[in-house]
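Agenda item 2: zinc ion complex prediction
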Amino acid sequence: MFGRLILAAAVASAATAGFAAPERGLKAVPTSFEPIKQACGERDGWSDPAPPSHVFGNVYMVGTCGITSLLITTPKGHFLIDGATDEAAEGIAENIRKLGFDPKDVRYLLATHEHLDHAGGLAKLKQITGAKFATREAARLGMESGLPLADDPQHGIHPAFPGVKADVIIGDEQTLRIGKQTITAIATPGHSPGGTSYTWKSCEGKICRQIVYADSLNAVSADAYRFSDHPDYVATLRRSMARIEAIKNCEIMISPHPFQSEFFERLAGEKPLVDPARCRTYVAAARKRLDDRLIKEAGN
Ligand SMILES: [Zn+2]
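Presented output:
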């Protein structure tokens, strides 16, 4: 019944908004929206509004010009990964509506990591959607307090974001399911202690692709923090890099900061959306940044 309601809503909205006909009731290709790359232009602020975009199959980008937020739809309810900032939350909900879906059908909210640019909008989105927020235990305190914890390299440099209470704790390699759609969490701490990546399969007709939403892996910190003073933490970050690098079948890789995976260029068709080398090149850039940082610290 629930699935039929969504199907009816999607079809009705597609008819009125001038979308291409939805495939299997899930794919309302947003042909009427300006391409996100063009719409954002030079704007890349965390809260800069962007139009929604179809990514692949049942996956949509509903975030801002500077921050990725992914909607994964199913006839039985949806997943939403990342909420950008508190200021961006209403726009994310509006983007879901513009696609012909109801924010109240989001059943699970997830996040890559406990920083204000990716988790700041989750509290408001939880209110709007009524969804359950699922997070790893390592991220829970940061998510609920809205502040990077003491062992976070960025501790002390961000203002608090509205904390979001965890409803479900997910472990490494644990899977969440809505109907036939599963999403698997991969613990990738390092950029933050609670960093989490996600992978799942989405299909468009008979073509199925493995999607990897890889968390930030960059060594960014408060001014006084020295990565070289925290060898265990650096080892953790390197392990996370190795895990993303080792993912077999990394067909469509997406990053929380769109520019780090040329996401908008790929959505615009200027670069291939399906690019099995992306997990490796993403890690190579992050690893170089960490190595450069350690060399710099050694010289000071
Ligand atoms: Zn961050």
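Discussion summary: Residues 278-299 form the longest helix (22 residues).
Owner for follow-up: CH.
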